[in-house]
TrEMBL record:
Domain Radical SAM core: 235-483
UniProt keyword list: Iron, Iron-sulfur, Metal-binding, Methyltransferase, S-adenosyl-L-methionine, Transferase
Source organism of this protein record: marine metagenome
Keyword Nucleotide-binding among UniProt keywords: no
Protein name: Uncharacterized protein
Name of one Pfam family that matches: Radical_SAM
Length: 507
């Protein structure tokens, strides 16, 4: 449901036993929690009713839902983020006040911190990996009391991914419709943003002079501004965030938890890149467009949030051609080597199919660090891409990370130099930077082991992971290797990342 209001259930399924109900509690987010929406569809196919609320729901509201809805299971969809504290609080309260309800933790957090979650008495089941094929079986096992599952439940990638779709009817889709300016950085969106700010200021100035808008001049000026607004926003597309057409990434960057078999393994435990076909994508676009139209909104674009969209190149291009044929723009991610291969064939294709922006995980401006994290990327490709961005005129957004345990001072400064140079416009208006961000070690990755060797102290409990936050001095104290950087570098980091870095300058 949207913002814990207008609760929507599968009440049309009258044959469902009242006790066979699941309440999902999800991370509070500006974007749809697709993992849970897929699970709702899987449960629906098994005849199990479900309801979803956000973890920021007030305790009294949650009590009312638990009392009225009477779920057999509460499923917590948890990311390793500050909100993990809220999930713990909800779990303890439910365990104390509603002992008949089984509590299941699933998602990335219990998947990468499964052993720690197993030690928590307020969690009945720790669900690891993907759940569409297994979670309905667990719910029925709990309801029927057959006890086939132990506390640790191993999920796997669905055997047939196209069998499942997000339960879009459970959320208000218009809340996930964003202006193109929300993430796209291009000459066009910069003009739109600047003009909108000017218009807003003019409106504010007029209303300050004439609060009642009684003057004919005020009325006429505001009418003219409205006409300008219409012209401005006709250029600004509405993009739906977001759609995932495949799961998994076959690459093995040392800092990333996505390739872990426990997250993307099949029933045999082997890594699986799984994908939806074109017909599935067409169906989702139709459903999203129809539901937005009910709210008086138009679908003009879609963000594609796959970990690695391009594994099946033919499938990928077919999907993007379809989106273009529907008059839709799109946001996409790609690797630098993919974009420049065969004389920029893919990058040119993005331009031909109405791509709004392509995002690449550049990570570092040091070849030494790129090799260290096994990015399998050539730094020179970045410069080639930035030059070609001005030719193809598809915005190129590059993300960076600094502070890897083995990263040198020279490497950090190369990345900071690169980001500042791009931001200052040295490579043209079609290139922009996301970040840089601070490296955070997560269990199951090579960089996590390196971080521990470099002095990273593992949080005492899985909930304490939620306290690791890049804006706090406590967060910085977790990374002792950063104290070895010269004071000049620490001052640059403080400029980029805020006052949290002042703690490091004393060392």
């Amino acid at each position: 449901v949207n913002k814990n209001s207008d609760l929507m259930t599968d009440s049309d399924n009258q044959s469902t036993n009242q006790s066979t109900r699941v309440l999902f509690i999800t991370q509070s987010s500006a974007y749809p929690q697709l993992g849970v929406l897929y699970l709702i569809d899987a449960l629906r196919q098994a005849g199990i009713e479900s309801l979803v609320v956000s973890c920021d729901i007030p305790a009294e509201n949650l009590d009312s839902i638990l009392t009225d809805y009477r779920p057999a299971v509460v499923g917590m969809s948890v990311l390793t983020a500050p909100q993990v504290v809220e999930f713990k609080g909800h779990s303890i309260r439910i365990k104390n006040d509603y002992p008949e309800i089984s509590i299941v933790w699933g998602g990335v957090h219990p998947t990468i911190l499964s052993e720690e979650c197993m030690d928590s008495s307020y969690i009945d089941f720790v669900f690891i990996g993907q759940g569409e094929d297994v979670f309905p079986e667990l719910v029925l096992d709990i309801v029927n009391g057959t006890k086939k599952f132990t506390k640790r439940v191993q999920g796997h990638s669905p055997q047939t991914l196209d069998r499942y779709s997000p339960a879009w009817d459970k959320v208000s889709l218009s809340q996930y419709l964003f202006s193109e300016r929300h993430s796209v950085r291009s000459p066009v969106t910069r003009v739109q943003t600047s003009a909108a700010m000017v218009f807003d200021q003019i409106k504010s100035d007029i209303q300050a002079i004439d609060p009642g808008l009684s003057s004919d001049v005020s009325v006429h000026v505001l009418e003219d501004i409205k006409k300008w607004d219409v012209g401005l926003y006709e250029l600004d597309k509405s993009i739906f965030y977001y759609l995932i057409t495949s799961r998994g990434c076959p690459y093995s960057c040392t800092f990333c938890s996505e390739p872990l078999q426990i997250m993307h393994g099949n029933a045999e435990g082997k890594f699986t890149w799984n994908s939806h076909d074109l017909n599935w994508v067409k169906c989702q676009i139709d459903v999203i467009r129809e539901r937005l139209a009910r709210d008086g909104e138009d679908l003009e674009g879609v963000g594609i949030w796959d970990d690695m969209f391009w594994v099946d190149k033919k499938r990928a291009r077919t999907i993007l051609k379809y989106l273009a044929s529907e008059g839709l723009t799109y946001l996409i991610e790609a690797r630098p080597d993919q974009l420049i291969r065969d004389d920029y064939s893919l990058y040119n294709f993005l331009g031909e199919t109405n791509c709004s922006q392509v995002f690449i995980g550049a990570e570092s401006a040091s070849q030494e660090t790129l090799d260290y994290i096994k990015k399998h990327t050539d730094l020179e490709d970045y410069y080639r891409l930035m030059k070609h961005a001005s030719i193809v005129k598809v915005p190129l957004r590059m993300s960076f990370i600094v502070g890897f345990p083995g990263e040198t001072d020279e490497s950090v400064n190369k990345t900071l130099d690169f980001c500042e140079t791009v931001t200052n416009g040295a490579y043209g208006p079609w290139v922009n930077i996301s970040g840089p961000k601070i490296f955070t070690p997560y269990p199951g990755t090579v960089e996590y082991d390196r971080a521990v060797e470099a002095g990273f102290v593992k949080p005492a409990t899985h909930v304490d992971w939620g306290k690791i936050h890049r804006s706090t001095e406590a967060y910085l104290e977790c990374f002792p290797w950063m104290r070895n950087y010269p004071s000049a570098t620490l001052e640059r980091l403080e400029h980029h990342f805020g006052q949290g870095y002042s703690a490091l300058t004393t060392h």
